[in-house]
C-alpha cells in the first residue's frame, strides 16, 4: 500500500468527498463523483460496468456510455493517486473483468468505519458492557453527516444501493435509542429519535421510541398528543390502526405516573449541544455541589459559566426530589425584581389565604431543590442577601450561582471558570478543545468544514487571539457563513467591531462580543471605570508598579490603585498572578480591546494618562 492510499479518506455518509493528507481533492463533475460513490457503496466488491452505467443514466444511456465511464475512472484515479505514475494508478480503483473494484482499508471509508463501530457496539452490548456499547453506538451514529444521504440520492440514478444503506442507519439508530432508554439516558437519545420521527413519520417502531423517550423524561402529556397525531396519520395515509409495538409504547405512556421518572426542571434548559473541553470542570463543579450548599461559578465575559452551570445542574438533577429551578437574572437590576424572578423560577405560589407578603423562604422551607441563579453579576448584593436568607431557612435547598463576581459569603465555594487553553505543540493542535469548538460551530454554518492541515494554523490563531473564550470562538466561527477564514483572521485586530454575526435564541449580552464584554463595565463604580479606561493605555499584561501612575486618573479618590485593581479582579475584569517578583495583572484581549476603545472615546476630553510598563516585567500582549 503506497503513501497516498494510507492518507486517502473517502466519505459518502453526507457530501461525497475525498481528502488526501486532510486536503480535499477535486472529484470532478457529478457523474464522475457518482462513479466513486457507487464503488464506495460496494467497497471491496466487483462492480460491473453495466451497473455503473445504470447508476449514471436513467432510461436510455448515451451510445458512448462505456467510454465515458472509463474516462471518469481514469480521472478519479488521478485524483486519488496524484503522486503515482499514470499507468500504475490501480491501487485504489482496481480493474477487474467487466468492471472495477474500490480497494481501501476499513479506516479510509466512513461507511466501513460506521459498520465496524456498529459491530463492536453490538458485541459490547451482548457481553453486558452497556455503557461502552452506548458510547460506541454514539460514535458510529456521528459518522453520518446526513442520515438521508441526499448527495448519494442526487448522484445515483439507480437507487438500489441507497435504500438498504438508509435502513442500516435506521437499525443502528434504533438500537442506540433503545440502549439509551435502558440506561436511563432519555435526554441523550431524544433528539435523534425526534429527527428519525420527522424522516420516518409512518415508521411505527421509530414513533414508539419517541413515545418511550418522552415518557422517560416526564413529558407524558406530550407523548399522548404525539400518539394521537401518529394514529391519525396512519389511518389517513395507510388506512391502518397502530400495530402492537406502537400500541404497547402507548400503554407505557398511560401507565406512567407523572414525575415518577425524573424530577422536574423549571426555567432555561441546558444547551442542546455537548460541552467541549469541560469534562474536568463539570466533574469538579458536581463534586463541590455534593459537598457545599452554595457554589459560585465566576469568570470573564463569554467564558461559559452558564453552560457549565446548567450542565452540572442536569448531572445532579436526580439528587433533588423537587428538581432544578433556573432563574435567569440577566435583565434583573433590583432586589424586588430578583425575588420575583426566583418566585417565577421555582413556580411556588403563596399558601392559600397567605397572600404575597409571606416570605419566599417560608414557602420553600420543605423543598429539596437545586436553585440556579444565573447571570447574577448586576445584583450581587441583593443575590447575596437572598441566598443567605434561603440557605439559613431552607435546609434542603442548594444554590448554584453564575456571575462575574462572587457573593462573598463565608460558606460560599467558588469555582473560577477559565478559558479553553490553546497551548499544545503544533502536531497536537487538532486535539485542543478550543479548535474543536471552532470546527464544530463552523460546520453548522459551512457544512463540511473540518480542521485540516491547510487551515489549522489559521484556526489556532483565531482561538489564541480570542483568548480561548468559548463565546468569542463561537461568534467567530459563525462569521464563516459570510466570510472566508482568511478575512476572519485579518479582523482580529478589532474583534469587538468585526466579530458580529447575526445571532438569535440567546440572551442579548451574548449576541455580540461587544455586548458580552461591555456588560462587565456595568459592574464598575465610577472610580473603577476610570481606572479600567486608563489601563487601556497599557499592555494587556502589566505589574503593580507600572499601574501606580493611574493615581493621576482617579485624583480625589481615597482608595489606592492596588485596591481598585483588586476590585477589577473580583469582578473578572482582570486576572492576577503572584510570583517571587510580585503581582502581575493581565486583561484578556477582548476586555483590553474595550479598555482601549473607551480610552479613545474619552481621550479627547479627559485625556487619561499613557500608562507604560517601565519595570520590564512585560511588553505587549
Automatic annotation (TrEMBL):
GO molecular function: ATP hydrolysis activity; DNA binding
PROSITE patterns (alphabetical): OMPR_PHOB
Gene Ontology biological-process annotations: phosphorelay signal transduction system; regulation of DNA-templated transcription
Keywords: DNA-binding
Signal peptide start and end residues: none
OmpR/PhoB-type domain ranges (all copies): 1-104
Source superkingdom: Bacteria
DNA-binding region listed in the record: 1-104
Listed InterPro entries: AAA_22 (IPR049945), BTAD (IPR005158), OmpR/PhoB-type_DNA-bd (IPR001867), P-loop_NTPase (IPR027417), Sig_transdc_resp-reg_C-effctor (IPR016032), TPR-like_helical_dom_sf (IPR011990), WH-like_DNA-bd_sf (IPR036388)
Name by which UniProt lists this protein: CalR2
Organism field: Micromonospora echinospora (Micromonospora purpurea)
